[in-house]
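Notebook entry, cofactor series.
This is the third protein in the set we're modelling with a bound small molecule. For this one the ligand is zinc ion. I'm keeping the input format identical across the series so the outputs can be compared line by line later. Sequence and SMILES below, as received.
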Amino acid sequence: MKIFKIVNMLLLCFILFTCKSRKEKQEVSSINNFEERRPPREEGRRRPGPPGGGGRVRNYTATDADEAITELHPAFEAFNKEATDIFLSNNGKTVTIETTGLPNHETIYWGKNHELYRDEPSVERTPSIMSSNNNAVTLVVDAVPNLSGKTINTHMGTIGIAVSGASIFNDQEGGGALDRAAASLDWTGGHIGPGVYHYHLEPKAFSYNDDKLVGILRDGVFIYGRKCFETGDYPTNLDASGGHTGVTQYSNGKEEYHYHIINELYSTTGSYIVFAGPYQGY
Ligand SMILES: [Zn+2]
Ligand SMILES: [Zn+2]
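Returned structure with ligand:
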């Protein structure tokens, strides 16, 4: 009986010990996984988005070097409140933009029977409509763009959020030239697919040959229409990304770096690309 008890105790100790060491191992390996999963800053930002660009995009981690702010930039007031939820995050170092991705303007991509449906006979509509598609995106951007002079190329998928609440994409479609997919673009330079509803071209529904706010890009820099608020005309001092420093209608009289849609017809589309990159604010 005594021997049986001692054996039992030993067995119990052995079980406890192996459980503990296994748990420790698991903890260590989950830390390792986390380190592996979390890429170094530049890598993380270069990482391509999901194919087609849909879904939640959360591949940005604020670092101590990032500047913090206490109030959202006034330009965020212009965003579609029905679609977006915009707030400071990471102790004011970043701004989180959550959006349903559903724009507040007409397009054929709403599908018949929707109040914002627009009949566009010349558009070769892709199979999806808003209601059959998940258009939601979450973007976390620098609260203060990091204008170090370093540039980073855009990637497939969401490169920014427009004031309408929908996504902005670059000048590529599925890795190829956009002009092949141009027939499916609606009157405001947008289409679905695959992935979220998104604009490639000047979004005429809210900016057409003017200085209006178009949206914010992933590097935290705002993008405006083809004209500049400061001069009321097409800017002549843009860098390769369509950016320059000047006063905008939302900068409280202060000069700040911002992008414009470059006033150059894009390929065979007969319109203007929203943003072909590279980012200047990462
Ligand atoms: Zn596209
Ligand atoms: Zn400007």
